[in-house]
Amino acid sequence: MRRLFLALLMVLHAGAARAETRFMVGIDTSWDLQAASPRIQLYSVSVPNDKLEHFLAGATIAWMLSVAGYNAPTAVAGSATAGALKEVRDMGVLPGLGHGDVEFADFVWTLMGGAAYVGIQALLSRPSPAKGDPSSTH
After folding, report:
1. What is the mean pLDDT of residues 50-56?
2. Cα angle value 77/78/79 (rounded, 5°)
3. pTM of the model
């Protein structure tokens, strides 16, 4: 079975208060009638680096659980559990572990990292349709 660990190409820049990562999320093409040429516009979104770290942690946890033989729902649940435990630690309710800033968004980014890995893995591990199979579409 094929395994994929998501590798992201990113451009880092330091913002005024904190570093962020810009991702290209889409391309819009249209025809410029005056210049008689296509116009291409790239859309991007800024993601704070701490959210990116949560996303990558979730994907890494799902990948490790998947490699260990656990099924997809368990891999996503593992990512969600890790995200939730990290936020519980940030609350300071666990003795001796300190505390940080509790953000629901951190939990969501960790969960989405696990879900993204599992989704990509499912797409890439689909069997190819047999040649001449009438159920395959061309």
Report:
1. 91
2. 90
3. 0.67
